[in-house]
Write a sequence for this structure.
């Protein structure tokens, strides 16, 4: 994660059902669904003003840390999150082993 994002807090916005991070007045976020101990990450997005800054990657990393710290099991339906985990296999440990594409991570 780029240094500029390290001290920006991650917010679990339960009203909007997204993990979000505000950068210079713009948001990078991941939509989620939650059932019990499982959280499905379904879509990652960053405002166009944040394009190319690494904000999307930072919100993914912060969200994965949050999931790990809160003993949640991940279902990475979002292609961006899936690709991030594939590049950073240490995060596979929080993915539910029953996830359909688990063996592709």
């Amino acid at each position: 994660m780029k240094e500029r994002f390290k001290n920006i807090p991650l917010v679990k916005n339960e009203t909007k059902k997204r993990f979000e991070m505000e950068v210079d007045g713009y948001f990078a976020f991941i939509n989620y669904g939650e059932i019990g101990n499982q959280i499905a990450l379904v879509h990652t997005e960053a405002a166009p003003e944040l394009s190319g800054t690494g904000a999307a990657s930072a919100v993914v990393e912060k969200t994965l840390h949050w999931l790990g710290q809160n003993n949640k099991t991940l279902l990475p339906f979002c292609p961006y999150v899936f690709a991030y985990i594939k590049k950073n296999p240490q995060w596979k440990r929080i993915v539910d082993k029953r996830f359909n594409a688990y063996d592709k991570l």
